[in-house]
Amino acid sequence: MKFLSAFLLFIAPISLALPTSVIERPVEDSIEARQCYVQCGSTCYTSSQVTAARNSGYNYVRQGSTAGGSTYPHRYNNYEGFDFLVSGPYYEFPLRTSGVYTGGSPGADRVVFNGSGQRAGEITHTGADGSAFVACSGW
Protein backbone atom coordinates (compact mmCIF):
# COMPACT_ATOMS: atom_id res chain seq x y z
CA MET A 1 0.00 0.00 0.00
CA LYS A 2 2.90 2.35 0.79
CA PHE A 3 4.26 1.76 -2.70
CA LEU A 4 0.92 2.68 -4.33
CA SER A 5 0.63 5.87 -2.28
CA ALA A 6 4.18 6.89 -3.14
CA PHE A 7 3.56 6.16 -6.81
CA LEU A 8 0.38 8.25 -6.87
CA LEU A 9 2.17 11.13 -5.17
CA PHE A 10 4.91 10.86 -7.80
CA ILE A 11 2.61 10.93 -10.88
CA ALA A 12 0.09 13.51 -9.61
CA PRO A 13 2.26 16.55 -10.52
CA ILE A 14 2.97 15.05 -13.95
CA SER A 15 -0.70 14.49 -14.75
CA LEU A 16 -1.58 18.01 -13.64
CA ALA A 17 1.01 19.41 -16.02
CA LEU A 18 -0.47 17.66 -19.05
CA PRO A 19 -2.72 19.74 -21.32
CA THR A 20 -6.40 19.19 -20.72
CA SER A 21 -7.84 20.67 -23.89
CA VAL A 22 -7.52 19.66 -27.51
CA ILE A 23 -6.05 22.21 -29.87
CA GLU A 24 -8.44 22.74 -32.76
CA ARG A 25 -6.77 23.23 -36.08
CA PRO A 26 -8.21 25.37 -38.84
CA VAL A 27 -9.96 23.49 -41.64
CA GLU A 28 -7.10 24.33 -44.02
CA ASP A 29 -4.73 22.31 -41.83
CA SER A 30 -6.99 19.30 -41.36
CA ILE A 31 -6.23 15.95 -42.98
CA GLU A 32 -9.40 16.20 -45.11
CA ALA A 33 -8.34 19.59 -46.46
CA ARG A 34 -5.04 18.14 -47.66
CA GLN A 35 -6.53 15.10 -49.36
CA CYS A 36 -7.00 15.09 -53.08
CA TYR A 37 -10.51 13.74 -53.58
CA VAL A 38 -10.59 14.75 -57.26
CA GLN A 39 -7.76 16.03 -59.44
CA CYS A 40 -8.46 18.20 -62.48
CA GLY A 41 -5.23 18.88 -64.34
CA SER A 42 -2.80 19.84 -61.58
CA THR A 43 -5.52 21.14 -59.23
CA CYS A 44 -6.72 18.99 -56.35
CA TYR A 45 -10.15 19.38 -54.78
CA THR A 46 -11.27 18.01 -51.44
CA SER A 47 -14.55 16.24 -50.94
CA SER A 48 -15.83 19.34 -49.15
CA GLN A 49 -14.99 21.61 -52.10
CA VAL A 50 -16.70 19.31 -54.59
CA THR A 51 -19.77 19.00 -52.36
CA ALA A 52 -19.96 22.76 -51.81
CA ALA A 53 -19.86 23.41 -55.57
CA ARG A 54 -22.48 20.74 -56.27
CA ASN A 55 -24.78 22.03 -53.53
CA SER A 56 -24.44 25.62 -54.70
CA GLY A 57 -25.08 24.70 -58.33
CA TYR A 58 -28.06 22.55 -57.45
CA ASN A 59 -29.57 25.34 -55.33
CA TYR A 60 -29.40 27.65 -58.36
CA VAL A 61 -31.10 24.98 -60.52
CA ARG A 62 -33.90 24.60 -57.95
CA GLN A 63 -34.37 28.38 -57.80
CA GLY A 64 -34.24 28.74 -61.58
CA SER A 65 -31.41 31.27 -61.31
CA THR A 66 -27.70 31.58 -62.05
CA ALA A 67 -24.60 32.68 -60.14
CA GLY A 68 -23.80 36.38 -60.35
CA GLY A 69 -25.23 37.05 -63.79
CA SER A 70 -23.30 34.17 -65.35
CA THR A 71 -24.79 31.26 -67.27
CA TYR A 72 -23.88 28.77 -64.50
CA PRO A 73 -25.23 26.34 -63.71
CA HIS A 74 -26.40 25.26 -67.12
CA ARG A 75 -27.26 22.01 -68.86
CA TYR A 76 -24.36 19.81 -69.77
CA ASN A 77 -25.05 17.71 -72.86
CA ASN A 78 -22.20 15.21 -72.42
CA TYR A 79 -21.03 15.41 -76.03
CA GLU A 80 -17.85 13.64 -74.89
CA GLY A 81 -19.85 10.56 -73.85
CA PHE A 82 -18.67 10.20 -70.24
CA ASP A 83 -19.98 7.31 -68.16
CA PHE A 84 -21.20 9.31 -65.19
CA LEU A 85 -22.06 7.93 -61.75
CA VAL A 86 -25.79 8.77 -62.13
CA SER A 87 -28.22 9.32 -64.99
CA GLY A 88 -29.05 12.75 -66.43
CA PRO A 89 -30.14 15.29 -67.36
CA TYR A 90 -26.86 16.88 -66.29
CA TYR A 91 -25.82 20.34 -65.16
CA GLU A 92 -22.33 21.79 -64.84
CA PHE A 93 -21.06 24.25 -62.27
CA PRO A 94 -17.53 25.66 -61.77
CA LEU A 95 -15.26 24.20 -59.09
CA ARG A 96 -13.21 26.47 -56.83
CA THR A 97 -10.35 25.70 -54.44
CA SER A 98 -11.58 28.51 -52.19
CA GLY A 99 -15.26 29.23 -51.62
CA VAL A 100 -17.88 28.62 -54.30
CA TYR A 101 -18.38 30.19 -57.70
CA THR A 102 -20.43 33.40 -57.58
CA GLY A 103 -19.91 34.72 -61.11
CA GLY A 104 -17.12 35.91 -63.37
CA SER A 105 -14.57 33.70 -65.06
CA PRO A 106 -15.49 30.06 -64.40
CA GLY A 107 -12.01 28.58 -64.76
CA ALA A 108 -11.43 25.18 -66.36
CA ASP A 109 -12.94 22.77 -63.85
CA ARG A 110 -16.57 21.72 -63.32
CA VAL A 111 -18.65 19.53 -61.09
CA VAL A 112 -21.43 17.73 -62.94
CA PHE A 113 -24.68 16.78 -61.19
CA ASN A 114 -28.10 15.62 -62.29
CA GLY A 115 -31.54 17.22 -61.93
CA SER A 116 -31.91 15.59 -58.50
CA GLY A 117 -28.66 17.14 -57.25
CA GLN A 118 -26.72 13.87 -57.30
CA ARG A 119 -23.01 14.08 -58.08
CA ALA A 120 -22.27 12.72 -61.55
CA GLY A 121 -18.53 13.48 -61.73
CA GLU A 122 -15.98 16.19 -62.43
CA ILE A 123 -14.61 17.40 -65.76
CA THR A 124 -12.04 19.90 -66.94
CA HIS A 125 -10.99 21.81 -70.05
CA THR A 126 -7.35 21.30 -68.97
CA GLY A 127 -5.74 18.92 -71.46
CA ALA A 128 -8.80 18.84 -73.75
CA ASP A 129 -9.02 20.04 -77.35
CA GLY A 130 -10.78 23.36 -77.88
CA SER A 131 -13.88 23.71 -75.72
CA ALA A 132 -14.15 19.97 -75.05
CA PHE A 133 -13.77 18.39 -71.63
CA VAL A 134 -11.76 15.49 -70.23
CA ALA A 135 -12.52 13.61 -67.04
CA CYS A 136 -10.87 14.59 -63.79
CA SER A 137 -9.30 11.72 -61.88
CA GLY A 138 -10.93 10.32 -58.79
CA TRP A 139 -14.44 9.41 -59.90
From TrEMBL:
Oxidoreductase among the record's keywords? no
Domain of life assignment: Eukaryota
Matches recorded under CDD domains: fungal_RNase (cd00606)
Q: Where are the transmembrane segments?
A: none
Q: Identify the EC number(s).
A: 4.6.1.24
Sorted alphabetically, the keyword list is: Disulfide bond, Endonuclease, Hydrolase, Lyase, Nuclease, Signal
Task: Respond yes or no to whether keyword Disulfide bond is given for this record.
Answer: yes
Example of a GO MF term: ribonuclease T1 activity
Instruction: Please list the reactions this protein catalyses.
Output: [RNA] containing guanosine + H2O = an [RNA fragment]-3'-guanosine-3'-phosphate + a 5'-hydroxy-ribonucleotide-3'-[RNA fragment]
Q: Which segment of the chain is annotated as a signal peptide?
A: 1-17
Q: Which family does it belong to?
A: Belongs to the ribonuclease N1/T1 family.
This protein is called ribonuclease T1
